[in-house]
Amino acid sequence: MSDTSKISVLHVDDDADIREIATLALETVGEMHVVTAASGQGALDALTSFTPDVLLLDFMMPEMSGEELYHRLQENPDLRDIPCIFMTARVQAEEIQSLKNLGAKDIIEKPFDPMTLADQIKAILAE
Amino acid sequence: MSKRTGKTQFGTPMILAGICLIVLVAYSAMTLTSSAGMRLLSYEPLVDIGLGLTTISALIVIWRRLMRWRLSVERETCEHKSRMKALDNHSIVSILDGSGKITYVNDSFVKTFGYTENELVGADSSLIYCDGQDAQREAIRSNLLNGMSWEGELRWQTKTGDDVWTKTTIYPSMCDTGLLASATCVHTDLTEINKARRERDLRETLHLLHDEVYIINAETLRFDYLNKAAMDQFGWDEAEYATKAVSDALPEYDEQIFRERTAPLIAGHIAQAIHRTELFGRACEINMQFIPNVGGQGQFLAVCRDISVQREYQKKKDAFVSTVSHELRSPLTSITGGLDLVLSGATGDLPHKSRSLIEIAQRNARRLILIINDILDLEKISAGQMDFDIRPTDLSALIKEAAASNQAYYEKYGVSLQLFGVDAAVEAECDADRMFQVLNNLMSNAAKFSDKGSVVDITLDQLEEDTLITVQDYGMGIPKESLPTIFGRFIQVPGQDRKAKGGTGLGLNIVKAIAEHHGGSVTCESVEGEGTTFTVRIPSTTATPNDRSDGAMLEAAE
């Protein structure tokens, strides 16, 4: 694959536009390596051949939600230790709390700032 | 008056009857005498005697008829007298002269209106008029002036200012010249009837309500009235509820607690008490008011409303708002993200004109996000779902923090911030995040509406019971006519300058909601051209008025 010194991200979001912007933001501004998936199943498929440093999961997705995908990952000993950051447009306090209770590393609110997204992820990983 | 009339009626025919009698007696005497004389001359005595006897018998018949007629007149007079007496007892009678002055009142009139006869006779009839009936009075007067009587319902005022309702008939009496000589007014008092009718109508109307209505004797706590919905709730009929008290209706009733909670109502400290609770398996809101009763025991009016449907609706609405906000945020993420990246130069250089257009798009997309955030906040606050983490908070530190985070914004507007009273820690019971939001909204507003180069003063004042934070700018100020509405939703003071500043129109509404949730308030003073001062007041020890965690708290409402 590409440069191993770069932080690798698997970004899962059903919205193609957001995938494109996040990829651009993380690769151009944050110099990260980004792989994208359009669904939970797509993510599971990608993870068979690629282990990212961090998973960026959209919470609301059709078919398999971010939460469901997260549970699936927890069942797999090889994947359960990958830190997961949820992205959500639902910013109500109790919703964020319930995501954290799930075991999410952190939550990034949508709309995110593409200029600081990479920094946010780095800061979360450094915690 | 009635006696005089009786005498006249009876007297004239009696005199006529007397004259007739004398004429007849004279005639019959003459006939008899002349027939006796004629008998000698004409030898027709039998004819003459017959004629005399006929005359006498006719006389007797007439006499008897006359007596019978007299008796009937006497009886009629007597009936008339008692009729007049009954009318006098039953009705309120007055007579007015042509100019509307009172010339006669009966005892009932005096009793009803509370004036003495002396006060009434000679006075203008407007003495007992109510305000605002000029048109009706004028209509009556024009009827009477045209010689027509008037009949209808009227409202009057007694000496003590009470209302009197009457059914009234007024007959005019005209002079030979065709002018109004006098008017006789006969009134039937409808006040009690009207009162009873109104009370009955009110009760009937209350039966139609879906809300349960209870009227409770404040002394004995027994039920004085239940509407149909309330009766249905307990399966009681009218006879049954009269024997019941509050203790029979409430499952977990404690008289002491009930008395304690209703004491501020009786004392008049609060106008109504709202109590939300689960009753008989449904969510209820009970609204209690106290009705003071002059000279008797007061009553509690309790209206119980089933709010299960409302709750359900609220839940659906929350879900809707949440979904909509999500649906709006996702595309906005793409819009703002894309614009940010383009503007950052990550995609290459931008021609100058394109850049300024994209900046406009970016600014407006951000504004949309702010509006969505504000709407969500307000929805949460109004639904009582925003979590307030109220604890002792150092407001000095909070103000400094808010000032620091607004620094860049102030620099952009060329305005400087001055802080006063923040050297020592000033503690108040509040939610730090929410108070930060309040400070942030007020500070950014002040910067927006200040002139370049001016200052904004933030002052923290700890008083005995309250802590005050004032945010004062020396900018354009708010027009007087806009002041009453500035805390409303989507309110922006008109004027081109202001529109360019690009607020959401929700910021002050959020400030107000948060301040009030802390049991405090926010006020605004402004002089156009001189500046504006916002004052946030937070009680030093905060009681949370909307804390419904125990589900049994009485909430004071104005």
Give a structural overview.
Chain A has 127 residues and is an alpha/beta fold. Chain A contains five helices and five strands. The radius of gyration of chain A is 13 Å and the shape is globular. Chain A has a five-stranded parallel β-sheet with strand order 2-1-3-4-5, sandwiched between helices. Chain B is of the alpha+beta class and 558 residues long. In chain B, 49% of the residues lie in helices and 22% in strands. Chain B has 16 helices and 18 strands. Chain B has helices spanning 2-42, 45-90, 107-113, 117-120, 134-145, 191-208, 228-234, 238-241, 246-249, 255-266, 308-344, 352-382, 395-413, 432-448, 496-501, 507-517; strands at 92-97, 102-105, 150-157, 163-174, 180-189, 212-217, 223-226, 272-279, 282-291, 299-306, 391-394, 416-420, 427-430, 455-462, 466-473, 521-527, 531-539, 554-557. In chain B, the strands form four sheets. Chain B has a six-stranded antiparallel β-sheet. A five-stranded antiparallel β-sheet of chain B has the order 2-1-5-4-3, sandwiched between helices. The longest helix of chain B has 46 residues, at 45-90. Chain A binds chain B through residues 15, 17-18, 21-22, 24-25, 28-29, 60, 88-94, 110-115, and chain B through 322, 325-326, 329-334, 336-338, 340-341, 344, 346-347, 369, 373, 376, 380, 386-387.
Give the structure's gist in a few sentences:
Chain A has 127 residues and is an alpha/beta fold. Chain A contains 5 helices and 5 strands; from the N terminus they run βαβαβαβαβα.
Task: Supply database-style keywords.
heterodimer; A: 127 residues; alpha/beta; five-stranded parallel sheet; 5 helices; 5 strands; B: 558 residues; alpha+beta; six-stranded antiparallel sheet; five-stranded antiparallel sheet; 18 strands; 49% helix; 22% strand; disordered N terminus
